[in-house]
């Protein structure tokens, strides 16, 4: 089978660029590896007409679905939407024949069409993707169903499917972000946990503002959240059920402080920092039995642990060398090896879902950066630079990093930003007010 211009172009766009290489899952004509060394990437032009309303009740969703799909794809930085006023022909029926010449004339390389109907409170969305230059569909049509209240999620699913078919890697649009919503003046800032769609829609508050909360983290299934709270006056790790908002303290031991928790990949174990007697080490805890295990035993401060995707290793930060640096050890503890080697201080490491990179915060010469490096510490790249950038979290496909930025220097309210792992497409994430400490969920089920 001959590989289309669309697929070839988007395979290139989907890779990280600027000296990084990646391998798509599968091209139409077989496995393909493309290495990009040129720092310039031109987004692929596409068209997404309003979806077809197949009954009267669907009219209110047809245009909105297409707009969310377009926002998802264009927001990735890999795609560029062709405006509707440039269209020569329109889609009048989901099953109608596509006039490829008309779409080719306006330089569209991909065409996304869809239809929607409503049956009671049930929403059914169909979509098709076409390669304009080869004049053929790219894969089979798909159908998604949900409640009318979940119409935005149906649009995210369509965008994920289109993204995956074109790039050869999974999407990240049908996901959520848990974060700390902040309000009030800087010297009396109120903080509570909130959860939202990845693009800022459908905000729900999980805690009230009665106690300081920090560093929420999703479980691998996205149904639970770990976080640190000062509700008792000292930092304690809490486990919260997203659906019921029920919660419990983990390891509430007198005379200790626990913080910086994170789930294991199977969701059965939690790693966190525990401070006791003036010393801070990393511990693990079985959620089934509550049994704790000490993983480090150094006089230095060890914190911010993060599992590798296979659960065999943990990356963490420590000042055992005299400055804050990154180390990797076995998930069962033992000897650790340092992986950070550049100038400055490193912290808040988090392993990519792909397993190949570690994201981190770096402070050097009065500036803060979000960066990535290979798991052996090589090929360090700084993606951002600001007065204060910190706390990276990975998108489910390992393509995008979200983080906290102080938007106006020392007095500015924090905001959420995202950036591609190539360092491109830096943008602010829309939130209802000030926000910090984001944590990205896995793709929703």
Features:
33 strands, elongated, mainly beta, 445 residues, 4 helices, 4-stranded antiparallel beta sheet
Secondary-structure blueprint:
Blueprint: H1 5-14, E1 21-22, E2 34-35, E3 44-47, E4 52-53, H2 59-75, E5 79-81, H3 100-105, E6 110-119, E7 122-131, E8 136-137, E9 142-147, H4 151-167, E10 176-183, E11 190-197, E12 204-205, E13 213-218, E14 224-229, E15 236-241, E16 247-250, E17 256-263, E18 269-276, E19 279-286, E20 292-294, E21 302-307, E22 313-318, E23 325-330, E24 337-338, E25 345-351, E26 357-364, E27 367-374, E28 381-382, E29 389-394, E30 400-410, E31 414-420, E32 427-428, E33 434-440
Parallel strand pairs: 3-5, 3-6, 4-6
Antiparallel strand pairs: 1-2, 6-7, 7-8, 7-9, 10-11, 10-33, 11-12, 13-14, 14-15, 15-16, 17-18, 18-19, 19-20, 21-22, 22-23, 23-24, 25-26, 26-27, 27-28, 29-30, 30-31, 31-32
Q: Can you give a write-up of this model?
A:
This protein is mostly beta strands. The protein has four helices and 33 strands. The strands form eight sheets. Strands 3, 4, 5, 6, 7, 8 and 9 form a seven-stranded mixed β-sheet that branches. Strands 12-11-10-33 form a four-stranded antiparallel β-sheet, with no helix packed on it. It has a four-stranded antiparallel β-sheet with strand order 13-14-15-16, with no helix packed on it. A hairpin with a 4-residue loop joins strand 7 and strand 8. The chain is elongated and about 75 Å long. The two termini are 33 Å apart. About 7% of the residues have low confidence.
